[in-house]
Design goal:
The complex is a heterodimer of chains A (186) and B (203). Chain A is mainly beta and 186 residues long. Chain A contains one helix and 15 strands. The chains are: A mainly beta (186), B alpha+beta (203).
């Protein structure tokens, strides 16, 4: 019995070795992978006005004009030439810079653009006077070159100051400027 | 009965003995024949196998969208935006995959390997107030400039002379995105399968 089994085993192995399997062989194997598509969608930038650029109540001389310069801080303003404040003490018509709130993607830089020309109008007279030497100041980066940066919460505030040239004999009035501000991610 | 068995057994024994005597020689002959032909034996190499790897993601970059928009990144890396504002950040680039065939041994026979690739459907992903989905798949494989999920792509690794032969290819597509609020990073899986159809040995 053992000899018979030995013969059968040998025959089987020899047969398997010499049976031709052709010039091509099937390899039924497969593989899988998982790629990925990625995109970073940034929170849209939003700007909200908090205060206008206010030059306040201004009085100038008949024979000489003057200037009102508003800086970027709350009480940072000055008068030149014959211009002086027409506000009473403690009045609410004192000059102050414009202020804006910006919200968007955390820690991202943005640029502030103001389309010119910027005009300040007298509330009573409607007289329009051009504002020059605009200054921009971002609270987060303490910079004044028109660039701002959102903080970790995606927020920032910036102020806008400027200089108003008031010609001689201009009717005393309270002057306020409209600012066409655009903010965009840098 | 006992005499008959004794008779047949005696006749069979000489034949069995003869076969058993030459069995080792025949076994050696069979082994030598196999080695001469160069037939792959599992005892001398690995099982042939195909593999596919994801080398680089399909990057759609960094952008802002008002409501809905789309960005297309082609297999060559060209970008087309629709209602999208491009921003600095993640650069856009097509995905790259590499498919390889390992014959499992060091033989020098020239092989032509035909493979089939299939990119499965990809889910729509939502991240906070942002939702996106990938469509319009493109590749730089011959005859597969535009492919649909589930569509078979045939790829031939021709004249393979080394143990492992590989081919890399790129995949692009269009990302359709809708933003309701906020922002976010969208990560969408791209499942891909590779299978061997045939392996032909050149004469």
């Amino acid at each position: 019995m053992r000899n018979r089994l030995t013969v059968l085993a040998f025959t089987g192995s020899l047969g398997a070795a010499i049976v031709p399997s052709g010039l091509h062989a099937q390899s039924p194997s497969s593989s899988s992978a998982e790629g990925q598509a990625a995109a970073q969608v940034v929170t849209n930038l939003q700007v909200q006005p908090l205060a206008d650029l206010q030059f306040g109540a201004i009085v100038v001389g008949v024979g000489e004009g003057g200037e009102v310069v508003v800086g970027n801080a709350a009480a940072d303003f000055s008068y030149r030439g014959s211009a002086r404040s027409g506000c009473g003490q403690g009045g609410a018509c004192a000059p102050h810079p414009a202020m804006f709130q910006v919200n968007g993607e955390a820690s991202r830089a943005y640029r502030i653009t103001i389309a010119g020309p910027v005009l300040a109008r007298g509330q009573a007279s409607g007289v329009a006077l051009e504002v020059s030497a605009l200054t921009l100041f971002s609270a987060n980066i303490s910079g004044s070159d028109g660039l701002g940066r959102l903080n970790a919460d995606g927020a920032d505030q910036f102020t806008v100051g400027g200089t108003l040239l008031v010609p001689a004999a201009t009717t005393p009035d309270i002057f306020r400027a409209d600012l066409p501000v655009t903010v965009s991610y840098e | 009965m006992r005499a008959a068995i004794h008779c047949c057994h005696k006749k069979m024994v000489p034949v069995t003995k003869a076969v058993l005597a030459i069995a080792p020689a025949l076994n050696a002959l069979a082994l030598g024949l196999v080695l001469a032909i160069g037939w792959p034996l599992s005892v001398h190499g690995k099982t042939p196998e195909v593999s596919i790897t994801a080398d680089r993601a399909l990057h759609f970059g960094t952008f802002m969208v008002f409501g809905s928009g789309s960005r297309t990144v082609s297999a060559a890396g060209a970008v087309i935006d629709n209602s999208i504002v491009a921003l600095e950040g993640m650069a856009s680039a097509p995905a790259r995959f590499t498919v390889s065939y390992d014959r499992g041994n060091e033989s020098k026979h020239v092989l032509d390997i035909e493979l089939e690739l299939v990119i499965s459907s990809m889910p729509r992903i939502r991240e906070g107030g942002v939702e996106g989905a990938v469509a319009n798949l493109q590749t730089d494989l011959p005859g597969a400039a535009q492919v649909r999920p589930g569509e078979a792509i045939r790829l031939t690794l021709a004249q393979c002379r080394t143990r492992v032969c590989s081919r890399s290819f790129h995949v692009g597509g269009r990302l359709d995105v809708t933003r309701s609020f906020g922002g976010g990073v969208l990560l969408i899986p791209i499942p891909i399968d590779a299978a061997v159809i045939s392996v032909e040995r050149q004469r």
